[in-house]
Specification:
Largest sheet: 9 strands, antiparallel
Number of strands: 9
Helix content: 25-40%
Shape: elongated
Strand content: 15-25%
C-alpha cells in the first residue's frame, strides 16, 4: 500500500507540473486572433464557377487564348473583369477568423441557401477551393464574410468587392458591343465571325 501511495503521489506531482490547475486556458479571443487562413494559389486556377443563391450559374474557363464563358458557347470573357475578380482572391491570405460556430452561418450569410458559391478548379478539374461568399461586414473590418465548404469557421476578408466581382450572371462577364465589319474584307473575317457569334449568344439567351 505504501508503494502504491508513493506512485500515486508521483503521478499527481507530474500532472501539476505539466498542466497546473491554477493556470487558466487562453481566452477564446486569443484563439480567433491566432487563426490563419491559407492563401489561395490563384495562379493555378484554370476554371471557376459562380452559383448564385437562386441557382443561376456562370462558368469561366481558361483556354489557350484566354478566359471564356462556357454558358455563352465559349465566347471570350472580358479580360479586365477576370483579372479584377482573381485579384480579390489574394485577400484570403489576410483573412481573420470571426466565428467557429455553425449557428452563425445565417447571420453572416454563409449558409448554403444564402451564399454565393464560388468553386475554383485547377488542372484536370482538381478542386482548389469551394467558397461560400456571404454578407458584407458593415462593422469592424469592413470586409466580406466567407466560409470554406465543409468548414464551420467563418472568416472576414478585408474587401467588400468579393461578391460584386464574382457575378453569377454569365452576361456580366463579356462585352455586349457589336462590331461593324465589312464581309468583303478577308483580313477581318475573324472579326465578323466573333460578331455573328455575339448575335448567336443574344438570340439564344433566356428572356
Amino acid at each position: 500500500n505504501v508503494v502504491l501511495a508513493i506512485i500515486l503521489a508521483i503521478q499527481l506531482g507530474l500532472l501539476f507540473v505539466v498542466d497546473p490547475p491554477w493556470e487558466d486556458d487562453p481566452p477564446a479571443t486569443e484563439g480567433l486572433a491566432a487563426a490563419k487562413l491559407e492563401a489561395l494559389p490563384v495562379e493555378d486556377v484554370r476554371l471557376f464557377r459562380i452559383r448564385g443563391p437562386r441557382g443561376d450559374t456562370a462558368t469561366l474557363k481558361r483556354g489557350p487564348e484566354g478566359w471564356v464563358v462556357e454558358e455563352a458557347f465559349g465566347f471570350p470573357a472580358t479580360a479586365d473583369k477576370v483579372t479584377a475578380a482573381l485579384a480579390e482572391l489574394d485577400f484570403f491570405g489576410r483573412a481573420t477568423l470571426r466565428s467557429s460556430k455553425s449557428v452563425m452561418f445565417n447571420s453572416f450569410g454563409v449558409d448554403p441557401a444564402q451564399a454565393t458559391r464560388l468553386t475554383l478548379q485547377g488542372e484536370g478539374g482538381a478542386v482548389i477551393a469551394e467558397i461560400n461568399i456571404g454578407k458584407r461586414d458593415l462593422q469592424g473590418t469592413q470586409g466580406t464574410f466567407v466560409r470554406l465548404e465543409n468548414d464551420e469557421r467563418t472568416w472576414v476578408l478585408p474587401t467588400q468587392k468579393l461578391a460584386q466581382v464574382f457575378p453569377s450572371n454569365p452576361r456580366a462577364w463579356y462585352g455586349m458591343s457589336m462590331m461593324d465589319v465589312d464581309a468583303a474584307d478577308q483580313a477581318r473575317l475573324p472579326d465578323l465571325r466573333e460578331a455573328c457569334f455575339e448575335v448567336r449568344i443574344e438570340s439564344n439567351a433566356p428572356a
